[in-house]
Amino acid sequence: MNKSSHAAPLQILALSMGLFLALHSHAVSDRPGRSQFIASLRTEMKELNRRQKAEMADLKASQKAARKDFENEIRGQRRACFDQSTRGSEKRTCVQEFLARRKSMLQIQNEEYRRRKGEQMARKKALEEEHQRRLREFDTGAVAPPSIPSPSASSPSN
Question: How many C-beta atoms surround the C-beta of residue 131 within 10 A?
Answer without folding.
Answer: 20
